[in-house]
């Protein structure tokens, strides 16, 4: 059997197009564009790539992009003052502070300064709390993107066994909350989990978010399971001096056993920014009353 390939790139393109339509409707109704502010501190090359891509896709979706770039040596107080200014700016519906921040800054303190109603990343403790108790709020983009792919593939998730590998605040924990809210039986596995292959073998849904190249092997996967690979790992390629991207799942192996698998690249990755745009638009509608 060969698994179906879950085309996150195509799904993300469709989602961006839908966001674009709703962004135009918002502008017609509110008399202004929905606005997303992105703050980048320092020159981390990967962060610069993300931020450029976010800005470009925001504009392409018909929303206003406000980019704030601050030098690495910016004082924390200055960043907090900028966040507070964005909190009260009526043109800004969503605020994202790109992580990681320079070492001298307290990330939790910075995130806690964002108005939770503009927290389109869903990283604020109030957003995490709202998700945990089932209140309306914002959900981190990557796990919400994974859930959209799962629901598109499986329709109802109710009663299914789901294993999330990884317990980060950004992916693993919110992913588990989302699956629980869909009435899955959820296990969160991590680096200390005993008999991980056995735990994964029970799962109808596997979400791998550990950052270890090709860790999840074919013989860990229940036949027919739906496998969502959040990992993006750069490893040496066969050709000398070259590298290639792989996920946390042995893709070729999983394809022979699973029912459906997300590829890397082209699976979960493109969903993150598409969901961010969706969250920013939702923020605009909610904040405009
Ligand atoms: N750094 C890497 N991914 C992300 C993200 O989704 N949001 C923020 N704020 N920082 C990141």
UniProtKB/TrEMBL annotation:
**Which key words tag this protein in UniProt?**
Amino-acid biosynthesis, Histidine biosynthesis, Hydrolase, Methionine biosynthesis, Multifunctional enzyme, NADP, One-carbon metabolism, Oxidoreductase, Purine biosynthesis
InterPro entries per the UniProt record, alphabetical? Aminoacid_DH-like_N_sf, NAD(P)-bd_dom_sf, THF_DH/CycHdrlase, THF_DH/CycHdrlase_cat_dom, THF_DH/CycHdrlase_CS, THF_DH/CycHdrlase_NAD-bd_dom
Top-level taxon in the UniProt lineage? Bacteria
For this record, an example GO cellular component is: cytosol
Q: Which GO terms describe its biological process?
A: L-histidine biosynthetic process; methionine biosynthetic process; purine nucleotide biosynthetic process; tetrahydrofolate interconversion
Read off the Gene3D superfamilies from this record: Leucine Dehydrogenase, chain A, domain 1 (3.40.50.10860), NAD(P)-binding Rossmann-like Domain (3.40.50.720)
Q: Does the keyword Amino-acid biosynthesis apply?
A: yes
Positions with a binding annotation for NADP(+):
166-168, 232
Residue ranges annotated as transmembrane are: none
What GO molecular function annotation could you give as one example from this UniProt entry?
methylenetetrahydrofolate dehydrogenase (NADP+) activity
- List the EC numbers from the record: 1.5.1.5, 3.5.4.9
Q: Which reaction does it catalyse?
A: (6R)-5,10-methylene-5,6,7,8-tetrahydrofolate + NADP(+) = (6R)-5,10-methenyltetrahydrofolate + NADPH; (6R)-5,10-methenyltetrahydrofolate + H2O = (6R)-10-formyltetrahydrofolate + H(+)
Give all residue intervals belonging to the Tetrahydrofolate dehydrogenase/cyclohydrolase NAD(P)-binding domain.
Answer: 140-286
What does this chain do? Catalyzes the oxidation of 5,10-methylenetetrahydrofolate to 5,10-methenyltetrahydrofolate and then the hydrolysis of 5,10-methenyltetrahydrofolate to 10-formyltetrahydrofolate.
Assembly and partners are described as: Homodimer.
Protein family (similarity comment): Belongs to the tetrahydrofolate dehydrogenase/cyclohydrolase family.
From the Swiss-Prot or TrEMBL record, give the protein name: Bifunctional protein FolD
Gene that encodes the chain: folD
């Amino acid at each position: 059997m060969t698994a179906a390939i879950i085309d996150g790139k195509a799904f993300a393109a469709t989602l961006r197009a839908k966001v674009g339509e709703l962004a135009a409707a918002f502008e017609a109704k509110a008399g202004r564009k929905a606005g997303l502010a992105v703050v980048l501190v320092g020159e981390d090359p990967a962060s610069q790539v993300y931020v450029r891509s976010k800005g470009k896709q925001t504009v392409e979706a018909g929303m206003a992009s406000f980019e704030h770039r601050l030098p690495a040596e910016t004082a924390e107080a200055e960043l907090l003052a900028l966040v507070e200014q964005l909190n009260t700016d009526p043109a800004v519906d969503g605020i994202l502070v790109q992580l990681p921040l320079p070492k001298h800054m307290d990330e939790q303190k910075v995130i806690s300064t964002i108005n939770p109603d503009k927290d389109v990343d869903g990283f604020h403790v109030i957003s995490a709390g709202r998700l945990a108790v089932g209140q309306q709020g914002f959900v981190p983009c990557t796990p919400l993107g994974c859930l959209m792919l799962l629901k598109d593939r499986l329709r109802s998730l109710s009663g299914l066994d789901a294993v999330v590998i990884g317990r980060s605040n950004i992916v693993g924990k919110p992913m588990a909350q989302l699956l629980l809210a869909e009435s899955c039986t959820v296990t969160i596995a991590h680096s200390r989990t005993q008999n991980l292959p056995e735990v994964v073998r029970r799962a109808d849904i596997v979400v791998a978010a550990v950052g270890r190249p090709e860790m999840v092997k074919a013989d860990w996967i229940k036949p027919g399971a739906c496998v969502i690979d959040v990992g993006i790992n750069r490893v040496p390629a066969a050709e000398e001096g070259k590298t290639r991207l792989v996920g946390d799942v042995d893709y070729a192996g999983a394809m022979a056993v699973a029912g459906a698998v997300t590829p890397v690249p082209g699976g979960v990755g493109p969903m993150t920014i598409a969901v961010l745009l969706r969250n920013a638009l939702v923020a605009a509608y909610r904040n405009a009353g």
